[in-house]
TrEMBL record:
It holds the Pfam family Sigma70_r2. Residues 14-80 form the RNA polymerase sigma-70 region domain. This is RNA polymerase sigma factor SigV. InterPro entries: RNA_pol_sigma-70-like (IPR039425), RNA_pol_sigma-70_dom (IPR014284), RNA_pol_sigma70_r2 (IPR007627), RNA_pol_sigma70_r4_t2 (IPR013249), RNA_pol_sigma_r2 (IPR013325), RNA_pol_sigma_r3/r4-like (IPR013324), WH-like_DNA-bd_sf (IPR036388). The keyword Acetylation does not apply. Belongs to the sigma-70 factor family. ECF subfamily. One of its GO terms (biological process) is DNA-templated transcription initiation. Keywords: Sigma factor, Transcription, Transcription regulation. Residues 104-155 form the RNA polymerase sigma factor 70 region 4 type domain. It comes from Bacillus safensis. GO terms for molecular function: DNA binding; sigma factor activity.
């Protein structure tokens, strides 16, 4: 009976927050189809182990962690299988480009080392608390705070250099 209940809670949770998971996944893989694949794979992984989740109140950080790890796994696999370089792909794409409200901020965030970028994304784009981010990344909360402030300083330096 308990297994069915947690499965139902998980299904409801995924449906309620599906856009957040997609947005998080997209922030890593930068491709709509790949982002969907990552979310689907994360759901598949979670369904196989949801019965081990003892406290449903921890479902949020538990599943975000699965999405982040699945996205990172995807990027590692993609890095090994890259068929062509980015310049060739850009040339072949006939000049289509995404529209971003603030290219400088987007590029500055993408240029951050991964350990800082993920914290910025989870904190400011997914609006997660530092405590939740610490659980997702298996880090001490003070470590997350330190990395967040370091990331913000790096962004400030990068963005102030662009104004010159």
């Amino acid at each position: 009976m308990k297994k069915r209940k947690i499965d139902d809670q998980f299904a409801d949770y995924v449906m309620e927050h599906k856009h957040s998971f997609y947005r998080l996944s997209y922030s890593y893989v930068k491709n709509p189809e790949d982002a969907m694949d990552v979310v689907q794979e994360a759901i598949h992984k979670a369904l196989k182990s949801v019965h081990r989740l003892e406290d449903a109140s921890k479902m949020h950080s538990w599943f975000y962690k699965i999405v982040v790890n699945t996205a990172l796994d995807f990027l590692r696999k993609k890095k090994r299988v890259q068929v062509t370089d980015d310049d060739t792909l850009e040339f072949l794409s006939q000049g289509e480009s995404d529209v971003y409200e603030d290219q400088d901020v987007k590029r500055a965030i993408e240029d951050l080392p991964e350990m800082y970028r993920v914290i910025i994304i989870l904190r400011f784009f997914e609006d997660l608390k530092l405590e939740d981010i610490a659980q997702i990344l298996d880090e001490n909360e003070n470590t997350i705070k330190t990395r967040l402030y370091k990331a913000l300083r790096l962004l400030k330096v990068e963005l102030s250099q662009e104004e010159i």
